[in-house]
Amino acid sequence: MTSAIALEHVTRTFRNGAGVFDLDLSVHPGEVVALVGLNGAGKSTLMRVMLGMLRPHAGDARLAGSLLNKAPSGEWRRVGHLVDYPLAYPELTAQRNLELSARLRGVVDVDDAIARILSEFALEEYAGRKVRALSLGNRQRVGLAAALQHSPRVIVLDEPTNALDPAGVIRLRESLLRRAAAGTAVLVSSHHLDEVARIAHRIVVMNAGRLIGSLDPSIPDIEHAFFETVRLDDEKGAR
Ligand SMILES: Nc1ncnc2c1ncn2[C@@H]1O[C@H](COP(=O)(O)OP(=O)(O)OP(=O)(O)O)[C@@H](O)[C@H]1O
């Protein structure tokens, strides 16, 4: 099966020597892959390379089998992502922001898509408010709504539960599980190990810019397994 999105031997470093090194990672349609790692491990950098926001120094990034710079625009329209900050114009209302982002993605029935996503993320009462006047969590909900309203076939979310309240976390979990069950490929990073264990088919561990192994989401003490994996890798590096 062609990967929905993939990195092959990707390296991208920064001037200070940090970055990501020789990464291989594929996410297939219908699969939820969680990316976990300590602060600075390289999760956001990996996602930025995967989305074409950073050009790799070595290796290839692919979308639906095509190199990113050759992927048809129709494939890009089927990508939904939230990396870094929610992409919203603060002076416009939540509704207007969703409308603009839906049009950019070629959504046909914009009103219908917005009504659905507002309900999915319980944003109806905030639709008419300017984004700058929303709470952090509600701004995050608007960012997620903008990333998901066009029913993407590939979803990449960097720490999407940041600032969400428990109800928001549950809504997002249900949304991602439903989308994956319908064939969408999902890559999500998080520091909440128990939460990702609930939704991920695979949990991939990053440390110091490398992928160092995977964790079985069904194991009982996922936090212990995570720290043990990182500790063993650090010990190897120190030898
Ligand atoms: N633009 C940049 N210039 C220099 N170094 C950078 C840049 N972006 C990231 N880095 C470095 O690359 C490494 C990986 O950062 P990255 O943000 O990908 O980690 P992360 O796993 O997403 O961390 P966190 O969990 O804190 O969000 C870090 O050491 C970071 O300081």
Bound molecules: adenosine-5'-triphosphate
| Main sheet attributes: strand count, strand direction, barrel closure | 6 strands, mixed
Helicity range of the residues? Answer: 25-40%
Rg over alpha carbons: 18 Å
Average predicted local confidence, pLDDT: 94
* CA distance, first residue to last residue: 39 Å
Order of helices and strands: EEEHEEHEHHHEHEHEEH
Oligomer category:
single chain
**Main sheet: strand order:** 6-7-8-3-9-10
Pfam families: ABC_tran
Organism: Herbiconiux aconitum
InterPro entries: AAA+_ATPase, ABC_transporter-like_ATP-bd, ABC_transporter-like_CS, P-loop_NTPase
Domain ABC transporter: 5-233
Task: Provide structural commentary.
The chain is 37% helix and 24% strand. By secondary structure, it is α/β, with parallel strands linked by helices. The strands form 2 sheets. Strands 6-7-8-3-9-10 form a 6-stranded mixed beta sheet, with helices on both faces. The chain starts with a strand and ends with a helix. The model has no long low-confidence stretch (mean pLDDT 94). The chain binds adenosine-5'-triphosphate. Adenosine-5'-triphosphate is lined by residues 14, 16, 18-19, 37, 39-45.
